[in-house]
Amino acid sequence: MARRVRSGLFRKYFIVTISIILASFVFIGGALLFLVSQLWMNEKTALLNENVRSVAQNTSDVLESDYLGESGRGSVIVICNSLMQISAAVDADVFITNLSGDVVYCKELLQSNMAIYTGNCMVHNQYKIPQEIMKNSRKTVFSGTGDLGGVLHNIHFIVSAPVVVDGEVVAVVFATQPVVEGLAPYVGAIFRMFFFATLFAFAITFIIVYMVSSRLTRPLREMSAAAKQYATGDFSKRISIRRPRIRVFGQDETDELVQAFNSMAQALASLEMSRRSFVANVSHELKTPMTTIGGFIDGILDGTIEQEKEQQYLKVVSDEVKRLSRLVTGMLNMSKLEAGELDIKPQKFDISEMLFRTLLGFEQVIEKKHMEIRGLDSMKANFVTADKDMINQVVYNLIDNAVKFTPEGGYIDISSKADAEKIIVKIRNSGKGIPSEELDKVFERFYKIDKSRSFDVKGAGMGLYLCKTIIELHGGQIIARSEVEEYTEFIFQLPLV
User: Fold this and answer.
1) What's the rounded Cα separation, in Å, for the pair 186 and 195?
2) Which secondary structure element, helix H or strand E, spans residue 288, and what is its range?
3) Helices 463-473 & 310-339, crossing angle to 10 degrees?
4) Read out DSSP for 185-244?
5) Which residues, 6 or more positions from 47, have their beta carbon under 8 angstroms from its beta carbon?
6) Strand partners of residue 346
7) Which residues of 217-237 are buried (b: 16+ CB within 10 A; e: fewer)?
8) Which residues are registered as beta bridge partners of 494?
């Protein structure tokens, strides 16, 4: 199962992260190639522009000078030689046309021995620049891309500049260079460098992302496996938090999730232990009185118990039935409280009288254990508005605990007093007390103090939980205080209205 989760969650996280990184590399590469191409084209255009201006100026100077020689042969040699040198330097085709668009000077007119070819240039003889382009080129320096109105076979960089002699335009200098043939090797070299650098970076990134993805999803995989284990009732597994040796940042959400998960597991384990203890306690609480009731009833029916003792044993049966009734009522009330189905029916009553009457119900046990009851003589009537039956259950549970855990010859001190806002009731009994480490847990449901410290191990661990829930339902508060080998005291307060 863990392997399936790894191949699912881990794979999705890994693939998504790698895809984002790969897309980023592609975007960066595309942007880089575009910017490099634009930079190369701008530089190439600027270079052609500069050289075309130079050729136009040189040509103008030659044509204006007297260096024409016989039939203008000298000017042709000078101009064509300049075109040859410039064309070789910028790797472009530089030529000069007349105003009709015909090529009159080019590097092909000049042989290597500075002799002039007879006839027209075989390369540029077929060039005829359209008049629309010539009109624009005569006005100012032009630069752009195109095919010179169909003269060239593919897209070229095109730069032109007019040749001015004595204030008049007499010719136009053109420089052309193929865009693709010049750009492709340059961009290809940049692409190869970027590709290998990206491949190396991507390999490292692949390893890092794999390790990080595995680390980030590890707690989730472990929690998934632990959750399956919890489903079987085993709450022993905990998820460890692996902290780096050098922690740059504080606690992250994954650490908080793991801590919350472990806390939940601890709470579930405690609840499961409490539940098992509750089931065992309830089973014992139900089994013992039922066995007693069944034994005494059978004894009465079959004549084993003498007739004059029937009343005595029927009284025992009645007490056990009441005990069962209280247990069942407590479980039902707890279920209703947790479901929010228990409605409060407030009425005004004297809580001091309730304390007194509840104590009377334990008179026989109190006398049998020779306990001293304190506080009744100074207690005054204190009226409170609350659900009388619920508060009576709280008072009964607290006094019942006090009676059970007070040793022979001990005391129970009960008091109630009121101020302007609330009623405060205190019930203290002498005895071994409650250890401080267990004092905060006594109000948890199903919780029972260590049996080795208790005088009475009966009960299902619901009484104090119900007391706390009922008091808080009324907007009050209940706390416990204790000194080991001295006393235990429960204090609750209720608002007057």
Assistant:
1) 14
2) helix 253-301
3) 50
4) HHHHHHHHHHHHHHHHHHHHHHHHHHHHHHHHHHHHHHHHHHHHHHHTT-----------
5) 90
6) 387
7) bbbbbbbbebeeebeeeebee
8) 423
Quote the longest CA-to-CA distance of the chain: 166
* pLDDT tens per residue across span 190-214: 888 888 888 888 888 888 888 877 7
A 10 A CB-CB count for 352 gives 22
Residues 326 and 389: their CA atoms lie apart, in Å, by 13
251: left (phi over 0), alpha (psi -120 to 50) or beta: beta
**Pairing mode, if any, of strands 93-98 and 103-106?**
antiparallel
pLDDT of 349 strictly over 90: yes
Dihedral angle at the C-alpha atoms of 140, 143, 149, 151, nearest 10 degrees? 110
The C-alpha atoms of residue 90 and residue 44 are separated, in whole angstroms, by 9
pLDDT at 80: 84
In 302-435, alpha helices (H): 310-339, 351-360, 363-368, 388-405
Q: What angle do CA 427, 430, 433 make, to 5 degrees?
A: 95
The sign one gets for the Cα dihedral 131, 132, 133, 137 is positive
Residues for the chain: how many in total?
A: 497
Residue 302: in which H helix or E strand, if any?
none
Cβ neighbours around 482 below 10 Å, total: 20
- In this structure, which long-range contacts are made by residues 79-86, counting pairs with CB atoms below 8 Å and at least 24 apart in sequence? 79/105, 80/105, 80/106, 80/107, 80/109, 80/110, 80/116, 81/110, 81/114, 82/55, 82/58, 83/55, 83/107, 84/110, 86/51, 86/54, 86/55, 86/175
Three-state DSSP class for residue 181: helix
Q: Is the pLDDT of residue 112 over 50?
A: no
Tell which wins on pLDDT, 21 or 284: 21
CA atoms within 13 A on the CB side of 172: 27
Three-class secondary structure of residue 393 per DSSP: helix
Radius of gyration of the chain (CA): 52
Report the pLDDT value the prediction gives residue 47, as an integer from 0 to 100: 87
Count the Cβ atoms, other than its own, within 10 Å of residue 396: 17
Strand (E) or helix (H) holding 412: strand 411-418
